Amino acid sequence: xxxxxxxxxxxxxxxxxxxxSGEREVAPAWRRVTHGEPRWAVTxxxxxAVALQxxxxxxxxxxxxxxxxxxxxxxxxxxxxxxxxxxxxxxxRLRWLGLALxxxxxxxxxxxxxxxxxxxxxxxxxxxxxxxxxxxxNIWLTNVIVFALWYWEWDRxxxxxxxxxxxxxxxxxxxxxxxxxxxxxxxxxxxxxYLYLSFxxxxxxxxTDVMPLTRWAKMLMMLxxxxxxxxxxxxxxxxxxxFP
Length: 244
Hints:
2% strand, mainly alpha, globular, two-stranded antiparallel ribbon, single chain, 9 helices, 2 strands
């Protein structure tokens, strides 16, 4: 009897604590309908990527160096006008517009990376060590932003679907999902979390504290690690040879 009464009292205590703290939702925030995340972080990252593209040498660009950045800014402006403050579901055209923007940034940076590798393999003499390191760092940093955008756009159907709680199974497992007591009750992943994931994957060449769960997430992280590894190894090796 004592064990039963103690167990009943402990349950009552837990219920009272939940009611007192206002935590009436059983499901965590990342599994239920919430407000759309603020747009400022993803907008700032895209603007940085566009600025980095404008700094690339003309020989590494797919079109005239201003062409793709201008088109990307036009698409970004359309997204901001449609949802100026938060990333919220309006219609499917906006999602396709966002995907087109990420594809353009990916295409431009992928072309630049391929051209840089080609120049390194053929030993382009016009590249001095400083220019090579700056160009390689430019492409590497843009690559971090590009994959952060892809992770953010595809995890559980994208930011709009995450806001509506449509997908209950995560593609990426964050620490706060495993240990909810380490985060506020309204925590859910936002763009800066995916940017951190992309950065650590590019530097460690492997997952750190965020685990990919689905096959596409694992393949995308593997692709990013490969691109980052090839870029860093070739650029650093060539730059060391060019230093006097």
